[in-house]
Amino acid sequence: MFTPIICSIGSFALFGCDNDRNTDAICKNNPEICEDLHRDSWCLYEKGNLIRQRYLLKTTPTPSGKMLYDQLRHLEVYSKCIELAAGVQHKVNVHRTNDRLRAYGYSVQNLEELQQATKGSTDPYLAYYHWARLNDSAALNVLLETEARGELQDPELLSKLAIYYLKTDARKAIWLYLDVLAKTDSEHIDPDWLLGLANAARSLNDLESVYLFSRANVLMTDQKVDEAQMQALLSQNKALVSSLDEEAKALARTIKSGDFGGSSFEKHFRAKWAPAAKTEPQPADVTPDVQ
Q: What is the value of pTM for the model shown?
């Protein structure tokens, strides 16, 4: 009978050393990592990521919350892919369909077990997962409290909290987006963060900033926009449009170069939207819409 590779946090047995990252070699030398997975060529990318992550967990005495979070995500992606593959019926090679069905069943079981094992964790990555994926309000409170203590540094998690605060506290959302831009290098910039800033500025009725952030997003993405609608934000003020267009170009260059942190732009925006007073995080009462 197959025993899932992940049973509980902290119970990752070591089965010797294997530094070969090739998945075939990993499976050959560590068969327990792969025996619950399907055998044919479907979902190769998803299966490969899962195998490598399992190997990393196996050879790490004390896995981090981030590693377990990555395992949860890889399990999710693999499970969804093999679920679809299991629906492809083989009239001749029936064993292939059965093999995928078997793998899908194990993937669901393993995912549920790891979700249960990580429930209640105070690690921010795992708290984010349980909030975003399982709508766990207690996990959201853990994330909010971690950020309030200044202990949340990962741009991905900060950007998700910024989305959350867009509904309740636009100034807080802006500060979180500024944190994200300041902490992210040029290779990992997401232009959608500028749209988040634009949405927050709209909530504060700052239409000039809505235009500025929207224009910078357009410059970074080459998206097509309705220019008349854009300029309507500024009541067709041509001089203001021209001035903000130049500012948006400079802002886009600064962000794309990874130099936003400590820039005059960051200092200006933080001074402009400085919070009136430090507030304690509110209890979670909003269903997540982040993925």
A: 0.82
